[in-house]
Amino acid sequence: MTDHVKLKKDLSWWDCSGIIVGIILGTGIFSAFPGLIAKYNTSTFIILLAWVAGGIFAWFGAMCYAELSSLFPHAGGDYTFLHKAYSLKGENVVSFLFGWSQIFVIRPASIVILALIFGRELQNILPAQMVSAMWFPSFFFALALLAGVTFINILGISAGKFTQNTITIIKILIIVFLIVYGLIKAQGVETNFAPMFLPEGKTFWQMIPGFFSAIVLVMWVYGGWNEAAYIAEEVKNPHHDIPKALFMGIFGVAILYIGLNYIFLLHFSPSGLANTYTPSSDLMSAWFSSRGRVIMSSIVMISAAGAVNGLVMTGGRMSYGIAKHSPSLKYFSKLHPKFKTPVKPLLANFLITAVVLISSRGDISSIENLTFYTAGVYWYFFALVVISLIIFRVKIKEADIPFKVPLYPFAPIVFLFVSGVLIWGAFDYKPFETLIGISILTIGIPIYYLINFNKPDNTLHLGPKDDRRINTDDRRQNKEERRKSDLGRQSSEEI
Fold first, then answer.
1. N or C, which terminus of the chain has less Cβ within 10 Å?
2. 207 forms bridges with which residues in the sheet?
3. CA angle 246, 379, 217 (to 5 degrees)
């Protein structure tokens, strides 16, 4: 492996959209979240409004990330943005703490939960005799999935994107089927929409706390759009393709989420939806009896596998981006000369995630508790990233910004407000676990100084010449490629 090997620019806006949609469309929409949101709100309008608002807020955040990715089209994503904005006098504690929490807690826990869901659903599909003969079947199915997607992503970005695009298309078709078939079967259930606006005995002001609780849950289900920043270095035209992919991806997901929740409300009513933790499975059972649950298990399994593949793909790029800025981690900053993939970061992420999987002993609830520990911290770093956008807007000339956030500064301010609500929601919902999460984060501070993690190659240098040069070279290369493509089309037409 050599230093001059670079990540292969092989991703189009369509591929980026597939990765974004594949990660967002995990298992949350098929599981307890729609019911939990209905439990806080007994109004059809308020529930659907929460899903619409969540899509808008996610779009605001995504546009902030699109501008940052156009400024710094590197593999590190959030780490790169935090590194550029908050490195001061040779210290880089903020970005280190982000990497610490992501690599060792947040990302492994998310992957393990999804992998165990995959294992549990596969266990439901296979013959009972085969499953009973196995030792901890969910655990081994989860480990096999993790090893499989890691191997696929080691082979190259083309293999990873093909897998992700295929699974994403399947998931979209599944949700479209649920919506269309739900509309076909809707005759006679229109009365379930009541109450449409305000429940009896409730005022508008009494509905606001429930709406805020719904937003906290909805934003979790919309989570994952920021992953596009980790693959910016491999996008053919990051200044154009990433904003387009984020817009199309989030718009498409929002339509699917709103449509599916409309079907849930149509068939269950708000109170009925609040009393089920598996609305999709219940609907499929009602439509297709026992076969419906088998079909639904397959759907959830495919969704979980797609989300795991996306998180593994972007996680390897994030670790690679961190290693490039860290002399002590130089060993992990090399790419494979043939596959042009960050093999060592991908393998390291596999080992860390496997340790978390083993420590879970196949029990999803133990890992879910771990994610609650980091919920407040997760949104705290989101807020810091968006604040870094404001810092760069002040320090960098507007002409040097390839893509600008629409509705600036309204979009970042609204997203910062939503981030504050979600941080407060984490403290309010799980105060003890949130405080433990802060403690885990704080442990990273002495570790940073103990290993002398990073002597960054830039301090608070907000308009680096290298980044401007990369952006200029990328735009020039993209124009040249488009010119050659146009000449090729003209030649074929003349022939």
1. C
2. none
3. 80
